[in-house]
Amino acid sequence: MRKSIPRSSLAAAAGIAALALLVGCSSAAPAPSGPVDLGDGEPGPAEDTDITVAIPFPDVTMYSMYVLGTDLGYYEEEGLTVEVITADNVTAAVASGSADIGVESTGTVIEAIRGGVPIELVGGHYCRQNFDFAVQQGIDSVEDLDGTTVTLAGTPGDPAEFQRKLVLKEEGWDLDTVNVEVVYPGPGSESWTEFFVNDRISLQPFYTDDRPALEEHGANIIVEALRNWANDVQVAGSDWAKQNPNTLVRFLRATLKAADFMTAPAPGEFPENVDEVLDIYEANDFDVSALRGSDSVWVLDGHLACSNLYFDQEAWDTTIETQSLEPLEFDAGQLAYLEKAQELVGVENDPPATLPYP
Prior knowledge:
alpha/beta, 6-stranded mixed sheet, 3-stranded antiparallel sheet, 11 strands, 33% helix, globular
């Protein structure tokens, strides 16, 4: 799903309040009542020109659209300046006004909206997820896991645990058929890999940057799968979105252009702009040495992206189903800003095409 590459200049958002304290509380002016009229044609001037985007950890995948949008001049064309920060709790940062836009996992956003947190889902970010799993050498079937310890997520309650169990079952590794102990080594996959190479767990999900250590250890890669499930989404504060509709449409239009540049000619094909993209990343203090010269179509993680920033009712329902969440009605009105931005760049809100695992 994500490949972490540290960026030293990202600032950390401090003093984020707990979500529960934010429900029903806001220092912003009252939001306009009723639906926002975005009008026809070009949006008006941006109401707020300085945009803060919160991401949960320094990560080139999450940050890519925004650094490209800045360096290629797309945000400047819209009269915007964009700063990216990290926040321990993205939804809290957005709801409190510490950030204007946030990128957060889809399941987390759904649960925050269920809990009354004043945020809106304003667009997709990554519309696919890849699921990769490794087991210890000598484990050839799910029966071989009986009596062992496995990791499916870093912390208890992570909705991704349900999705990973589902994918394993679909791929012939149904953990409910054997007796395994599930442990939670910590939020970062590097800690899972540390447990694995020290023979403390028999199975783990992994990301691209974990693979060298796993292969050196002799791990057996049992599943490599790609699913058209919304990975994460972009959110905005409910009041902020209503008070800044032209800003939000302009921001999304610029971000659509950046996503298209990154994925061109199309997701699942080798990115034609890879050298320019990596040059921009490197100029912004990302370490891209491991990506230089790669012939993988996954080099920019563009296989996870939909260049139209797709999200809709189906993506919402699929997240609820695959993460075993309680049903919650989807408010399609949240997508008005995205659909307006899509209209302006001439794309539809089409769902992702099925891609083969490279």
